[in-house]
Amino acid sequence: MITPSSHISTYFSHSERMFPVIENGKIPTEQFLKACQGIADFVGFLGTTFIPVKNDISTNIIKVKTKYEIDKEKCKFVEDLVDDDLENNNGKMERATEGLLWLKRGLEFILEFLTEMVRVYRSSLDKSQTESLTGCICNAYNNTLKRHHGFISKQLFKVVILAAPSRSTILKMLAEGREDVNDICIDHITTHLDNFRANVEHIVQYYISKKLDTPNPLRINRQ
């Protein structure tokens, strides 16, 4: 018996891993952090060479979560958490705001990678030609994290990129043990990307408006 695709769950279809809907211009902190943990766990699927990336994202989640748990009502929304952290530190970034800064940079990288993987998969008639993820990860890195890294980090990341698993390996993990559901996995990733992108872009702009980060020149050139 064939199960309808709408009834098939994959890694990114679970509600706890979905990024929240922005409410009146603000991002609900609790669901945002849960979704971020889902991204960190996904990075673990990319193999042992990506463990430093996963650990970096997880560490920054903890920094933000620690601030949130001190006063959940006051920090109910990400923007309020940032504002409170700045207010308590004379307008300067402290542990939570710095953690969120690097968290959103990591999220930008994964967002770009997943977007590129979906684009390449869907635009290729011969899916066997989409097995290598090296190009997707390299493009994502160049468009996001690279500008924030020094020479040593850039060289280390070259090694990480070359050790990336195949596209089919990733989709098999996302399928949670199911066979022949690549298209469904891609559909679920695409749906997941909507709120993921909205959350990340919102935080990026919020940090720029607070002069806590600078615009990505590559984004400006695309516009």
TrEMBL record:
Keyword field contains Transport: yes
UniProt keyword annotations, A-Z: Transport
GO cellular component, one term: cytosol
Origin: domain of life: Eukaryota
Residue ranges of every copy of the Glycolipid transfer protein domain listed in the record: 27-175
Pfam families hit by this protein: GLTP
GO molecular function: ceramide 1-phosphate binding; ceramide 1-phosphate transfer activity
Name under which the protein is recorded: GLTP domain-containing protein
Protein's organism: Thelazia callipaeda (Oriental eyeworm)
